[in-house]
TrEMBL record:
Catalysed conversion reaction: 3-methyl-2-oxobutanoate + acetyl-CoA + H2O = (2S)-2-isopropylmalate + CoA + H(+)
This protein's name: 2-isopropylmalate synthase
Organism: Blautia pseudococcoides
Pathway(s) annotated for this protein in UniProt: Amino-acid biosynthesis; L-leucine biosynthesis; L-leucine from 3-methyl-2-oxobutanoate: step 1/4
Any one Gene Ontology BP term: L-leucine biosynthetic process
Lineage: Bacteria, Bacillati, Bacillota, Clostridia, Lachnospirales
């Protein structure tokens, strides 16, 4: 019955629409331990958080939001443990979230004392709904909250040292008039006075996604084009996924000029989640852009993620789900088998195999177990492929055809998938009298 409000910027140039793809990976920031964790039915305990942190480091994240230490005892203790037990590698920056309120900011600085590299991420909500309904404050009053927070951060950072950087988020950015969001961000930057050697981050959250990706891209472009000190500021995106478009928001936001992405593994996070960094990174990988994140052992990542979070990864989750490279249908299997031969023979410049978006081997998956899967939908191509690649049996066309029909009939009758060893047994039984 109600239409959700969103805001197009006053001027749109849509330069992003002229670009084909991103030319380099953004700076990645994992918010798994904060936004992801706060949305779990049972948030992670201390040990799980430490193990998850190590997993993120192993994948290659250089910026990790570790929590909201002033808001929860576990998050405070977790951060102290990371620092005191020297678990943060020198090239990794920990990010801590705080509201723009004096006592919370001060407690956050206490929590993070002694860390080697820190981003203090301060936010306040700027949207029309939040201003009117939640805070009952004017635009000027909301702007003042941001400015006071920015001042305190600057003051405490000057006392704390060189290894601190700042981030500001106008929370609910996409529900905020773009001109006003720009005014608030610029006022914050006026306090911080960005320099090339210490660039602050302006983060533009899609706190709740309620418009199409091109609207967000236009908002991002408007901010990027009009932000003061732009060359000394890192523009970051933080898309949530309420309309299922978090990845599209991120890709188009990067085309629109952003430099950095905050997201999570498998898109964990509030409600429908934060943007899934795995999908984003591997989308880039499939276009030849090195993501600088290591997903070569995806099964191990999936296992650990499920163990720590208690979440289940969908079998259709891009690049990671159990079935995302599987081909049961005979015609798909035939095309894949032919594509693999083509690849071996011609060695083309691009990945050209039909029905496979990337080489499954690149994420640690294999052809026998994960790609060519045999059931009643399958045909001679798939069965032939398994017998050839796993058992070295290059069958003549007629035998392959017969094996295809036999396997299909057995699977149809038993209503079960046939595993490679079962196919080999079936082959032996079918042709036991043939010499
Ligand atoms: O989604 C959001 O707006 C947030 C902010 C705190 C950055 O998580
Ligand atoms: Zn968020």
């Amino acid at each position: 019955k109600y239409k959700r409000q969103y805001f197009m910027p006053p001027v749109t140039c849509m330069k992003w629409a002229e670009k084909e793809y991103v030319d380099k990976a953004p700076v990645w920031c994992s918010v798994d331990l904060r936004d992801g964790n706060q949305a779990l039915v049972i948030p992670m305990n201390l040990e799980q958080k430490v193990e998850f942190f190590k997993l993120l480091v192993d994948i290659g994240f250089k910026e990790i939001e570790v929590g909201f230490p002033a808001a929860s005892e576990t998050e405070y203790t977790f951060l102290r443990k990371l620092i005191e037990e020297d678990l943060i590698p020198d090239d990794v920056t920990v990010q801590v979230l705080t509201q723009a309120r004096e006592h919370i900011i001060k407690k956050t600085f206490d929590a993070v004392k002694g860390a080697k590299n820190v981003i203090v991420h301060v936010y306040n909500s700027t949207s029309v709904s939040q201003r009117e309904q939640v805070f009952k404050k004017s635009k000027e009053e909301i702007l003042q909250i941001a400015v006071e927070g920015a001042k305190l951060l600057k003051q405490l950072t000057e006392e704390a040292g060189e290894n601190y950087r700042f981030e500001y988020s106008p929370e609910s950015f996409t529900g905020t008039e773009p001109e006003y969001a720009l005014e608030v961000c610029n006022a914050v930057l006026d306090i911080w006075q960005p320099t090339a050697d210490r660039k602050p981050i302006i983060n533009l959250p899609v706190t709740v996604e309620h418009s199409m990706p091109h609207v967000y891209a236009s908002q991002v472009e408007y901010i990027c084009e009009n932000l003061k000190y732009r060359e000394n500021v890192i523009v970051s995106l933080h898309p949530h996924n309420d309309r299922g478009c978090g990845v599209a928001d991120s890709e188009m936001g990067l085309l629109a000029g952003a430099d950095r992405i905050e997201g999570t593994l498998f898109g964990n996070g509030e409600r429908t989640g934060n943007v899934d960094i795995i999908t984003l990174a591997l989308n880039m990988y499939s276009q030849g852009v090195e993501p600088n994140l290591d997903f070569t052992d995806m099964s191990a990542i999936c296992e650990k993620y499920e163990e720590f979070t208690g979440m289940k990864i969908s079998e259709r989750s891009p690049y990671c789900g159990a079935l995302v490279f599987a081909a049961f249908s005979g015609s798909h299997q035939d095309a894949i088998a032919k594509g693999m031969h083509w690849l071996d023979e011609k060695k083309p410049e691009h990945w050209t195999v039909p029905y496979l978006p990337i080489d499954p081997k690149d994420v640690g998956r294999n052809y026998d177990a994960d790609v060519i899967r045999i059931n009643s939908q399958s045909g001679k191509g798939g069965v032939g492929y398994i017998l050839e690649t796993k058992y070295g049996l290059n069958l003549p066309a007629k035998m392959r055809e017969a094996m295809g029909y036999t396997a299909k009939a057995v699977s149809d009758h038993t209503q079960k998938e046939l595993l490679p060893d079962q196919i080999f047994e079936l082959f032996k039984k079918t042709f036991e009298n043939v010499t």
